[in-house]
Amino acid sequence: MNESPVATDEELLRQRALDALTAARARTVLLTGCVDDHELTAQHSPLMSPLVWDLAHIGNQEEQWLLRAVAGREAIRPDIDPVYDAFEHPRAVRPSLPLLSPAESRAYASDIRCRVLDVLEKHPLRGGPLVDSAFAFGMIAQHEQQHDETMLITHQLRSGSAALEAPDPPAGGVSGLPSEVLVPAGPFAMGTSTEPWALDNERPAHSRELPSYYLDTVPVTNGAFEAFIDAGGYTDERWWADEGWAQIRKHGIEAPLFWRREAGQWLRRRFGVTEPVPADEPVLHVSWFEADAYARWAGRRLPTEAEWEKAARHDPVSGRSRRYPWGDTDPTPDQANLGQRHLRPAPAGAYPEGASPLGVRQLIGDVWEWTASDFLPYPGFTAFPYREYSEVFFGGDHKVLRGGSFAVDPVACRGTFRNWDLPVRRQIFAGFRTARDA
Questions:
Q1: Based on CB atoms within 10 Å of each CB, which residue in 1, 16, 215, 407 is the most buried?
Q2: Which of 105, 18, 119 is nearest to 65 (CA)?
Q3: pLDDT in tens, 71-81
């Protein structure tokens, strides 16, 4: 009886890249195919691009990196490069640009993808950092999934009836769980030098020494945040950083984005559906300032990103850092709420199989978690393959978020993955958990 041939490392890499690109495109098609052309070309918020811009931008980035940079082919649509340059045009002005129509955008993205699959099949996956381990293909798959998350945010901001649906996540429950977990003092390895598709800001791995601290076992829930609101949290200047206080006073902010009070209860709008705010879900759509104010009110603080990563990756028994809280294997549906499989966070305490060695739950998926840290480079950072991915954002203007959300695909989420945004942002799928010194 003949045995099946064993796939080579390069064949496995090609398959992994193909799977990642295919999954990303299927999601893009879903997000742009569930609404009509008017919805695709409309700007649903000045904070976001029209959906049709994202669609063509995805194709343009794929052309630039995989056809031009990797394969060395001549440009197909160099004329549209400036239109879809994210650094040249702020989101608020993109509707005024000469954008490709929905039909043209779909045709362009499809044409580029067909050519890319030919490159993936034939091009050697060795010979330089852009192609080693199929890095450029992984980078583009992550880029598309990040724009898919951005488009899902646009879906949340759009008015009108629901265009998306998904089953509810599994049940949770905090009964029997401690409210917080002690993370012992000592060193741990932060970042990575070995994850093949890790982006430049995750590198290199380096040792960090931390004192002991306590971290919430689960993210802060809607019910807990309601207690902050009921206690006058939004009207008491004591809890707020100066800029945050100015923001909530200027804009009349009294609750998380998409919440409203009606007939004595809090309601929220979620992807076109109005529903009671579920008390047991992690709070969502809060800015860094709101998270920081809650933490101060509760007598606690936001964790630093080093504290977050140690709790998520460090195994105190072996002393090594894992890829994920549960180990080194890729996420499964039993371990984390990822990939738009559900259109909401799971209740606090869900996914016991995804817990960290110390028992912290839901560190991956559900909600992005604000940290206390500014977005800064690691020691030994080198920009790759372009400065505009990370380096131009370093500094005190942006705060780091960790862990991903229900809207993040596993290809763009791992224990070392770093997200960042302005501390005023509320439309993103962000929540938080708190910490305190031991």
A1: 407
A2: 119
A3: 999 999 999 99
